[in-house]
Each structure stands twice: as C-alpha cells, then as structure tokens.
Write a structure and sequence with these properties.
575 residues, mainly alpha, hpI Integrase, Chain A, 3 domains, 3-stranded antiparallel sheet, 51% helix, disordered N terminus
Length: 575
Amino acid sequence: MGHTDVRGSLRTARREVAKRRVGPLLVALEQVYELLRSEAPLEPAKRLMADFAQDFALRGAGSTDGLQIAAMQLRKAINALGSPALPRNPESAQTLIHIDELAPLLAREQPRGDANVWAADLLRLAIRARCPNGWTRPGRGAALIELCEKIADSSEVAPPDIREIIREELARAGWGDRLQQTPQLDAEHLKDIVISAITSAGRDRWSTEPLSEVIKQFMEHKYPLKDGKGRVGSKHRQDVDARLAAFLLFTGDLAVRDITRNHVKDYCSALDSLPDRFEIRFQTKNMRAAIEKNGQRKNPYSTIGPVTVDLKWLGPVNRMFDWLFSEQRIENNPVQGIRSIQDAGDAANTKRLPFKPDQISKLFAITSAEPPKTALYWLPLLMLMTGARPNELAQLRTDDLDTTFNGLPHLNLLCLIDDEDEAANADDRPNLDDHRRVKTSAARRMIPIHPMLIKAGFLQFVKARHDKSPKQLFRELHADQHGSWSGAITKRINRIIRIRLEITNPKYSAYSFRHGFIDACKNAGIVEETRMKFVGHQIEGVHGLYGNPHVLQRESELISAIKFDGIDFAKYPVW
C-alpha cells in the first residue's frame, strides 16, 4: 500500500485518531520490510529462512525431495549441537504483533495454492521470530522445520512471479551473490549456520545506532535547550556532555547494542588510574595517554577519587544507558552495578585534609574581623560547625532557618552531592521558584545548629535579614553563569589560605572545614549514618542511596556533643 492509500483508509481527519489507527499497520509493515531489507540479519531465523527462500527460488517450487532433505539435515544439525529434540508442532506464543492483525495484510491478494500460502506463512513466522519473550530458540527452530516440511509436502509448483519476488527481496537484503551459486545444504553447513545463529540470537532486535548519535539524542532528550538555555545549569549540562564524550573517545563509536560490561569495566579501571586534572596537566583528552604519561613521572599526580569516578564519570554514562533500556533499545544496562574499586576512605583522605586547630585560629583571626553581615565573616564558621558545602551555604535564604524541627533550630539546606560542588544527579530535581540548584534526589536535609553558632548570634543575624519576607541571606553573593553561588567566596577564602596563611599544600582548601567537622563528629562518637545525614554524604543500604535524609530528634541533640578544642575563635562571640 502506498502512503496515500494508508492515509485514505484511516477515515479520520483527527491527527491523534489517525496515529492510533495507523500504529498496528505501520508496525506490522515495518517489521516485515525491516526483516527482508536490512543490511544485517535481525534474527537467527532470518539467516535460515534466507537459505530456504533461496533454495525455493533456485529450484522452482522446491522439489518435495529437496525440501524434505533440507528439513532432515536441519534437524540433524540441531541435534548435533546437543540441543533437545524439537517438537513438530510448537505451541503458539504471544507476539509483538498479533498474527490475526497481520494476516489480513498478507492475505489481501487472496493467494491461491499452497506455494503462495507458504510464502505468507514465511512472513508470519518472520514477525513471530522477533518476539523478545515467550518463544524459545528451540521453539523457533521447530517452527521453521515445520514450515519447511509443510512446503515439502506441497506438490504445487510456485508461480514465476512468486520466485521473482523472493529473488528481488534477497537482492535488497544483500544476498544477491548467493543466487549465483548452488546453496550448500549439507549437515556441516547447516550446523555452522545454527551455531552462528545461536551465538547472535536476540541481539538483532536491539539498536544498531552508533554511540555518538545516541549521545546527541540523550542530551537533547534529557537536557533540551530553548533559546540557548536549558532547564538545568549550563555547567552541569557541559559536564555531562564532556563525560559522555570521554566515554565515546575511550570506547570508540560502537553500536550501542555492542557495548558490553567488559567495555565499561575497562573504562572504570582506567578512571581509577586517571590523574586528576589530566587534560590541563598533559594537554590531552586521551585518558590512556594521560595515564601512561603520569606513570612515567618521577612523582605521579594523584588520581581522581572513587566518588568522583562513580558520580561524575560513570554517573552520566549509567543514566544514558538506563534511558536506552527504558526505551527498549538495548537488552540491558551494561553499567549497572559497576563501581570504582578504590578504597573510598583512603581516597577521601588523600583528596582533602582537615585544618589543624592553629591553622583555623589564624584564619578566624582574619575572617572574624570582617563586617558581621558578610559571607566572609560567617561562612568559615558555618562550614566548620555544620559540615555543609560552600555552595549549600552560599545560597541560603532567610526562610531556610527552622527553629521548631525536633525542638531545636536547624538549617533546611538544599542538598548537593559531591565535594567538588559540581553536579552529579540533577535530572529529577523539583521546580523551585527561587531557581536554586538542587543536586540530589534527597533535595534537602536538616542540619542542627551548633550551640556555639547560636551564641555567636547567627539566629539573630538571620532574623534581622528576614525582615518580614524571605530574602537571600548573603546579599553580596550571586550565581555565576554556571549556576554556582560559591565560586567567588571560596576563591577569597582560598586566597587567604594560600597567601596570608602561606599554606601551599593543595589538599587544604575551603573544603577542609567540612572535613574538620566530620572528624569532630567522629571524635564525639557520632555513628556513621548520623554523620552522613549531617554532611549529606551517600547512605548505602536497604533504604536506597540516601535513606531518610532527615535527622531524628535524638540525632539532632547530638550536635551539642561536638567539640572544637584548641581553636581560638578570635572575635567570634561563641562563648
């Protein structure tokens, strides 16, 4: 049927009705013609059916003796593989397209004679062979044998036009050269066909699109741009795009169905050996080259940590394959369950170091002299006593103070996920009127406010800033082009650390306050799950990645047990 005929047969001018009515028809036709004309076989059945159809075309009707011999040899070949005996009458199974829907299309010309009927049966069998569930490989083989034997039992000679159609379709499918030679139907040849078919069984229905094209589709679907802007921060979108490009460069532009767990494991292994900031240090995007050059250094650069590997590098790849799986374009997600094999604890300690008490004292002597309404005055103290990330604190609003939760004052923080203040899982964020960056499925967490912060006047500062309506707490801070609020203030703090405190070790930075809070929690005997809730780290377990992000009342009360011994708080009135 031509396109005009299809449109005319729908008997409606409504687009949605037309789409619904044409669906089964288009699927049926696409299945048939994709099967016959694709460049690569779509199912094991296709390769076998090609030989049967070729033999049918070469021998006229396909003599009874010849087709009976073919059926017998096929049965012998399958038995030679050690497969169980195949039944002659396989049970019917649920198919992607119901045979009853397809039959009118195949029988529209009302074929007469067994040969034409078997040709229609061959197409029906092609449709059923693409069924992903409910029909085993032996069942498919049995159906082929039964069809072959039915054709063999027919005494009618196939009309010339039927033979010509088969020749034409074989040529379109790329088998035209086979028509010039006598088909080899000996048992060994059929055995090779069956072995090859079983090896590749099932994969032919999955997407053959190259990885590069799928990455483009994923970015357009998950991170659409409108007028050059997306619904997520541009930096997050750029990061995801860069991580997927790195995976493409490492793996090669394979068909997505051909990417296996071994490819992902090799990639993850390389990430575990990847030097930090390798593109800048080695002026290359080639991970293998950077790893090799780093290994040749007398003092190799430190590698990226396991959290960074899992969230920043593997995370986008995992989400892309999850999307492909949900779209039924791949059989499974090859990234599922693959993680960095680095020791998380050791890696974290080599990544950032907590400040020593005397270093904090020197820094507080500088920041406590700032005006008491500024971010530079409050952020170092807040980071030390809450363990929050700079970007979480920089975007605080005056209504983020909750004085009643668990009977104690808490900060209701937007929750980020990694210690580099970069996006890790922003796909499922809720829509917020204040357009602040939500980075995790936990979205928010409650942090109890330390008694020393209360004595320092933090609650009064927030209430004074509020003044009847919610406002940005630190008004001098603004989101940059990437949606980050803390870029400018962390640079100021890091300059103080490098220049005025003369601390040049890169393991010390503004994030060292956060690690100091974690150590203080450990010293106070606070268990890991509670510590993770305080600082917004991942919680593994039966409750999922984050578990319940909100602290219990008994956990909130533990905040007063945290001590900061040996620190001179200078002008901060914490006593």
